[in-house]
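We treat protein structure as text, and this decision shapes the records that our systems exchange. We quote a single record here, exactly as it is kept in our systems:
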Amino acid sequence: MFVDRNNIKSNIIVNNGNATSAKNITQIRELLGIKASDNLVNARYVLVVEGGDDVIALKSLLSAMSEPIAKAINNNFLVIEAIGGAGNLSYKLTLLSNSLCLYHSFLDYDEAGREAFEKAKNDGLISLKNNTFVTCNGATNTEFEDCLDVGVYEESIQSEFGVNINSPKFRNNSKWSDRVKSVFLDQGKPWNNKIEAKVKYVVADAISEDPLNALNVHKRNSVDALITSLEALINS
């Protein structure tokens, strides 16, 4: 709790009668006996997202859209970590705080995401400043895929599942996964959590292949806001 994570060199290490400024976060972690996971050994910043598919898509997307973020990711200073569902947010943030990581979360704006944020906020783990919700104008509940351009991934869904996403069932203000579910069922395909997860990974792979064209120009506001927040975090 006494470590200054914003300015690493302001932390003074006293060893064998000599006082020197800390060189990096790894040195401080070793001194305090903190066992960071392999993925976080050199990480100073962490972007917390809900699923592994979000990691795939956002790593390509953010790197393509921001040079500072791309550099931080390539140097492993910024790591994108999935929590396996919004309900695990508080637990994950506690681990990251104990590992001396500065973090920002990117959550779906649905019931699960809002509840997870409120719990983490009440636990003193998060604030409005270090969280960005996925929001789209006119929609009550939204998720990351709602920000994406359908044209970038519709062919991949057609090829993998035999489903044409260009359907009236897909064009409404429900959140993305609910709209995709309607299309699948309408076209005689089953739908469950496992299929939903696979569809999201197919979409993430398509986005990683064409990140510069991945965003819907009318619904990209949340991702743009996320980039602004991450660049401010990295430059702080």
Observations:
- The CA atoms of residues 153 and 203 lie 6 Å apart.
